Amino acid sequence: MRDRAVIAPWRGLLAVWLGLLILGGATGCKSTPKTSGLSLKDLSGKAVPISQLAGSRGCVLVYVAVDCPIANRAVPELLSLACEFKAVGMPVYFVHASAFESVAEIRQHSKEYGIDVPVLRDVGQGVARQYEAHVTPEAVALTGEGRLIYRGRINDQHSALGQDRPQPTQHDLADAVRDYLTGGIATGRVVPAVGCTFRSL
Amino acid sequence: MDTDSHGWGRGLVLGIGMSLISSQAVAAVAFHEDVEPLLQTHCAGCHRPGQSAPFSLLTFADAAKHGREIAYVTARRYMPPWLPAPQSEEFVGERRLTDPEIEVFQSWVKAGMPEGDPAKAPKPREWPGEWTLGKPDLIVRMPVAYTVPAAGRDVYRHFVIPVPLEVARNVAAWEFHPHSRAAHHAFLRVDQSGEARRRDALDSEPGFPGMDTPMSVRSPDGHFASWQPGAGVRRSPPGLAWRLEPGSDLVVQTHLKPLGKPEPLEIEVGFYFTDQAATNRPVKVALANYSIDLAPGITNAIATDEYRIPADAEVLGILPHTHYLGRRVEAHAQLPDGTLKSLLLIPAWDFNWQGDYTYRTPVFLPAGSVVQMRIQFDNSAANPWNPSNPPQRVRFGPNTTDEMAELWLQLLPRTAEGQKAFEKSNLERALRDSILFNQERLRIDPKDGAAYVNLGRAYLGQRRNTAAFQQFKTAVEVSPQLDEAHYYLGIAHRMKGENAEAMASFRRAVALNPGHARGHGNLGMLELQAGHLEEAAVEFAAALKLDATDSLACASLGLIRLQQGRAEEARPLLEKAAKMDPANAEVANALRVARERAK
């Protein structure tokens, strides 16, 4: 954990720096020349360009997995946030990125957990690579213009694999998105997520 | 640990390009050849369908999907879960990977998790059927399934399971099946008083909440009876089967973790009986500290207690208990010759994986040895288990936001005199602990009537009758609706010879709780003393109806009926009383008379 804490500020800075220099604040939920090729797939296999995902204020992608206990425990909190954010123009999407999960397993999982938000797949993990997501559960919150609002954990229940409190004491995703919705500033804050790794960084 | 995770993190940062290079350096490591045998031996007991773990680790796809987590949790020694550090006194069922085994997972992930040659896979392991030892002699299950909520904090709940037995049986082994991945650990206890049932009935949900187990709910005689995922079947040591009495309720205290969806929990317990009754009885001893008071941010607070072994004995097992702020647990025995023997060291306590440990070879402690408990607490924000952020002041208490420091020993005295010496010292300590514990309860809630009652009972045990009387009086003042408060005040009055006051107190107790058998029994005795035979008979009959095992009420009612010239009614009562209390000469005489007259 210590090494992650050290890396975290660097990652945050990098994200902001990339946002300013390379991406020019123009990638993400809306189409831009550089990322117009990025897309997720819905469960019928149809490509959904990420430009089509934003509501009036942006969108939140949450990486999840069918059998990650940490991601699954966060599902109720995510569904309640999805409800809250959708109402203010910030839809939440669940995204599966593991090559080892079939569409049938994902459908079964969504049914079992009562997931009533759109469920997408990041086949090839292109979007995860773009936004540096690598574990479940991990959220990527983007403005409509594609700036990073927040990337990282949902809450602080788990501080490492096998280290969990009886209940979370901080709700980082909710706080970050609410701050953005109130203040309108996408800080690009990054809080390392703890969970099941679906790709190497 | 930090170095391990650091190395792993770096591997991840370097990514796929690096893994090509390292796969040449550690080309030998592959799934079927190297990883699968380890998973089969150390992981798949729980990580397979139908078991407690959240995902399976049987196939290449299973392992590759979770490979990075496997490397991380094995290097941290979080998996397989086993808290005690290695020591010379080994435990049954130790689950530990060797350093080279841990390295296999590291190398495999660094090499890009190659599958290897399926032809070189180990033979699939044969798993036991549903029950490890075959069909149990008795299977009991929760009468109604409980639903673990999808969200919210961890749940602690007692579930009450009736045991349908006609006669007492000796339990040689038992196996616990929660049929749910939400169950994280459990303690099996027994209640013969009906108190657990009563609490269960207080709300509509199955079971009753909390960490505060009723006094009448006890772990099986001399045993710990804990369960955690992977525990499998629990066997009583040879000659030490425990008795399961008819009319008992099983009370399972369970720690449940919400899974993100509503989860049904339907606990089953399978029992294997033996005709061989116990030839010996282990004693349990508790070391405990009730004066825990942790300032926010404190990292080095230590709770200690010690126990002087009163007679030669073997230690069979050990059970540590603390909550989320406990970090390091140590138990030593200082032998009379001064040598120090480590009984248990848990360098990184984990509340989720608590349980009891049985020594592979019982540890002999000569009389005069002193067992020392030392539990270190960390109430700083850096403790990842801390339930409060920012940290709060935490004191002793039964809830998970309170703290506890306990260490239980299961001991087998070498001689019958030794057994008596343990029982005597245990009683003294139980009274001491009850006083300390209930004083803490009263500090938390000065209006806790039950705590005053318990305190008074402990004082009675110490023959401090005046102090006891005061506690019962206060109990009645703060909890006028508490039947036990009036009952014990009645007992105290009776001891002082204040029969009128005693009578009034017992009347109040049975008015509040008509099911108070001992209240009726005491009223019977007082009425009898006053010469009111018929009034006494009514009370004894009520007591007997509520508790058929009350031999005193049974004998008294029989004697009254005989005296009233109702020998036909007296005979069956006296027969039953003689059976329950064969040494009672008065009953035996009366029975003879009753039989003659009834002819």
Short overview:
Chain A is of the alpha/beta class. Chain A has one domain: Glutaredoxin (3-Layer(aba) Sandwich).
What's the SSE blueprint?
The complex is a heterodimer of chains A (201) and B (599).
Chain A lengths: L1 H20 L17 E4 L4 E3 L8 E7 L4 H18 L5 E5 L6 H10 L6 E3 L4 H6 L3 E2 L1 E6 L4 E5 L5 E3 L2 E2 L7 H12 L5 E3 L4 E2 L4
Parallel strand pairs in A: 3-4, 4-5, 8-11
Antiparallel strand pairs in A: 1-2, 1-5, 3-7, 6-12, 7-8, 9-10
Chain B lengths: L1 H24 L5 H12 L17 H6 L1 H9 L23 H12 L27 E4 L4 E3 L6 E8 L6 E9 L5 E9 L3 H6 L7 E2 L7 E2 L7 E2 L6 E2 L6 E3 L4 E8 L6 E3 L2 E7 L8 E6 L4 E2 L6 E8 L4 E10 L3 E9 L5 E7 L10 E9 L4 E8 L16 E2 L9 E9 L2 H29 L4 H13 L3 H14 L4 H13 L3 H14 L4 H13 L3 H14 L4 H13 L3 H14 L4 H14 L1
Antiparallel strand pairs in B: 1-13, 2-12, 3-6, 3-11, 4-9, 4-10, 4-13, 5-7, 5-8, 5-11, 14-23, 15-22, 16-21, 17-20, 17-23, 18-19, 18-21
Helix pairs in contact in B: 1-5, 2-5, 4-5, 7-8, 8-9, 9-10, 10-11, 11-12, 12-13, 13-14, 14-15, 14-16, 15-16
- Structural class assignment of chain A: alpha/beta
Extract low-pLDDT stretches of chain A.
1-34
Output the CATH topology of the largest domain in chain B.
Serine Threonine Protein Phosphatase 5, Tetratricopeptide repeat
Reported for the largest beta sheet of chain B, the result is: 6 strands, antiparallel
Number of distinct helices of chain B: 16
Proportion in β-strands of chain B: 15-25%
Second CATH tier, the architecture of chain A: 3-Layer(aba) Sandwich
Oligomer status = heterodimer
Class from secondary-structure proportions of chain B: alpha+beta
Alpha-carbon distance between the two ends of chain A? 16 Å
**In order across it, which strands form the biggest sheet of chain A?**
2-1-5-4-3-7-8-11
Instruction: State the total count of DSSP E strands of chain B.
Output: 23
Work out the helix count of chain A.
Answer: 5
Mean pLDDT of chain B, rounded to whole units?
91
User: In which range does the helix fraction of chain B lie?
Assistant: 25-40%
What is the 3D form of chain B? globular
Largest sheet of chain A: 8 strands, mixed
Overall form of chain A? globular
Poorly predicted segments of chain B: 1-26
Radius of gyration of chain B: 29 Å
Largest interface, per-chain counts? A-B, 37 and 43 residues
